[in-house]
Amino acid sequence: MKILIVEDEKLLADSIKTMLEGRGFQVETVYDGETGADYAELGVFDLLILDVMMPKLDGFQVARRVRAKRCGTPILMLTARSSLEDRIEGLNAGADYYLTKPFDMRELLACINALLRRQGSQVDELSYGNTSLDLATSMLICGENSVRLSAREFDVMRLLLQYGDKNLSKEVILAKVWGYDSNAVENHVEVYVGFLRKKLRSIGSNIKIEALRRLGYHLEVDEA
What we know:
The structure is a single chain. By secondary structure, the chain is of the alpha/beta class. The chain contains eight helices and eleven strands.
């Protein structure tokens, strides 16, 4: 599970990140609203944790911008502003839950788990052809055969399954999986697609990852 923390109090952001990473989450932290909105719109996070009072864009503006892009990722909003009007504004902006500072880390973790359970109850696997990807265990499954994917393989495979037969460019894969400010290049995408092709063959999957020059990759079912 990937979580994005958008919080300008670096000490708090880093403390939350350390706590969550200790529980097995993948966590990114950014320290202003504008950067937070850019990251959130990549669509690769399972949960957004937003502070309200931030430079460039406040949390309400970030939430509205994310929701305007039809991004349904759960949003947990953090703020020292505890008035009813502020809570209503946060919920109306698109937040799913509103936690007032100061808070106990156990309360924060309980909120995070509740939001992720709510999301997980809707989708816990992606399927295409005779193959499925278990989102909880990172297992690629075909009948009685299965293989575990690495974190990066999982992210690429999940993206391909979400797009299905629609073409997905290498640039989009790089942005969504590695991040737009990463030093990764298109060859990284090619390498991981190669890994996934081998793993799909190893479990007898009828999914093929097809490449179209200058258009990227899409999935096809081999009917043979």
